[in-house]
Design a protein that fits this description.
The protein is mainly beta and 446 residues long. The protein contains three helices and 36 strands.
């Protein structure tokens, strides 16, 4: 009988302890907020019955001048927490395994650890002093706002469901969103980002990336994009030919001093609502941008020696695209060759070329030409160094006159009455000013 009484007394003591267990709430403003929510009763005593809070799923203590949120760890069933606009410096949510929505913006939080909150779908922690944020375990995250902090590195490669992402005004030098194919809204302005690749973000509708260090931006694959602000970067290449230009009314690429060409859907389309308003260098392909790069053009030369003259736009090279050996202004050319003038500005380049024929003769007659409109050897040109030629006649192999040339231009483009002539051998007859006649043949190759 005595043992039975001891057992009953023990059960009563345990039940009483459980029932009467309290959670410490050291911040009086936090406790007052709980009283206002009906989770505690006056007077303020620095604690609240644990049973009153352990089953709560939603808690809103926004703007209550709270400095310390100690006690929140016993809200074990909590799913939605709004503790924004307070003066909180630290926040512990490791016991809140059911937490789905956390709003803690406009506080003084320096460190936020949400690694245990694997069910989290929405996080707003903007306007704090957070320096690091580990999101690797938050694979259900859909909405993330962490702007106006001091974050230097942000890895969102595990957040495949992320749809809305704002990280403006941090200290980010890079941002990888290549795994976030569901992303529809991205705002990362006011950082130090150098490269931003959004090719895989096929659902993107809004992209705000102004005030960074981005030099190239390609949104040609973002066919749903309607809003773009990439102003105040160092852009020299911008491709916005995404097939949706007619619906892009909010577009700003101003304050990019090196950007002199933009690739769009229709170069002749209406871009009057875009900024900067005075911009006009719109083109249909990236290759067309080279036309806006100035490059000097020189005539072909025939003679005994050639001195490279001063040019304003470009440099001399022995091969195309700035390859081969760079030649210097004033250098004497003693060998026959094609010389290229190559000019590269930022992301684009342009090029011209001219032929230097070194010979002791007064004229030069080429052996062949290739009129295929590639910019190289497209015409058969007789070089008359000392103006010793009176006229040139060109015949086909049957003796039919195809072209008569006289004066300063001794050039044939390979046509007869507007029709292109076939690959074949053709004959020339050159009459010199002395009356001497020179005859020979040359090849047309297509």
């Amino acid at each position: 009988m005595f043992k039975t009484w001891l057992f009953l007394i023990g059960i009563i003591l345990i039940s009483s302890k459980t029932f009467c267990q309290n959670t410490a709430i050291p911040d009086s403003n936090f406790e007052q907020a709980l009283i206002d929510e009906g989770l505690d009763t006056p007077p303020l005593n620095g604690q609240v019955p644990t049973s009153n809070i352990s089953g709560i799923t939603d808690l809103d203590v926004k703007g209550k001048s709270i400095q310390d949120l100690t006690g929140i760890e016993d809200f074990l069933a909590l799913q939605n927490l709004d503790c924004s606009e307070n003066q909180i410096t630290s926040l512990t949510t490791s016991t809140l395994s059911n937490l789905r929505i956390l709003w803690c913006f406009n506080n003084r939080i320096t460190n936020l650890n949400i690694e245990a909150n694997t069910e989290l779908t929405a996080l707003r922690c903007e306007n704090n002093t957070i320096s690091s944020l580990n999101l690797l375990n938050n694979t259900n995250l859909v909405d993330l706002t962490c702007e106006n902090n001091s974050i230097t590195n942000l890895n969102v490669t595990s957040n495949l469901s992320l749809s809305r992402f704002q990280c403006d005004n941090n200290l980010l030098s890079s941002l990888d969103v290549s795994y976030n194919s569901n992303l529809s809204y991205l705002s990362c302005s006011g950082n130090q980002i150098q490269n931003l690749n959004v090719i895989n973000n096929i659902s993107l509708k809004v992209l705000l990336c102004s005030n960074n260090q981005i030099s190239t931006l390609n949104i040609s694959q973002n066919s749903t994009l309607t809003d773009l602000n990439c102003s105040s970067n160092i852009l020299c290449q911008l491709l916005i030919n995404n097939g949706n230009n007619n619906n892009m009314t909010d577009l700003d690429f101003s304050n990019n001093a090196d950007l002199n060409c933009v690739v769009v859907d229709d170069a002749n389309g209406n871009h009057s609502t875009w900024l900067p308003s005075g911009f006009s260098n719109y083109v249909n392909s990236n290759e067309d941008c080279s036309t806006f790069i100035p490059v000097d053009v020189l005539d072909d030369f025939i003679g005994r020696t050639y001195i490279l003259p001063i040019i304003s736009h470009g440099h001399y090279y022995t091969e195309p695209k700035g390859n081969g050996t760079q030649l210097n202004i004033g250098e004497t050319i003693t060998n026959s060759q094609t010389i290229y003038i190559y000019n590269e500005i930022n992301c684009y380049s342009n090029e011209s070329n001219f032929n230097v024929i070194i010979t002791d003769n007064d004229y030069f007659i080429p052996k062949f030409f290739t009129p295929n409109n590639d910019g190289f050897n497209d015409a058969w040109v007789v070089f008359d160094y000392d103006h010793s030629i009176n006229n040139v006649s060109i015949f086909n192999r049957n003796g039919k006159l195809l072209k008569f040339l006289s004066g300063a231009s001794l050039k044939w483009d390979g046509t007869y009455n507007g029709a292109q002539m076939n690959t074949d051998t053709y004959w020339y007859e050159i009459v010199l000013n002395t009356g001497e006649v020179l005859r020979g043949y040359f090849a047309l190759k297509r």
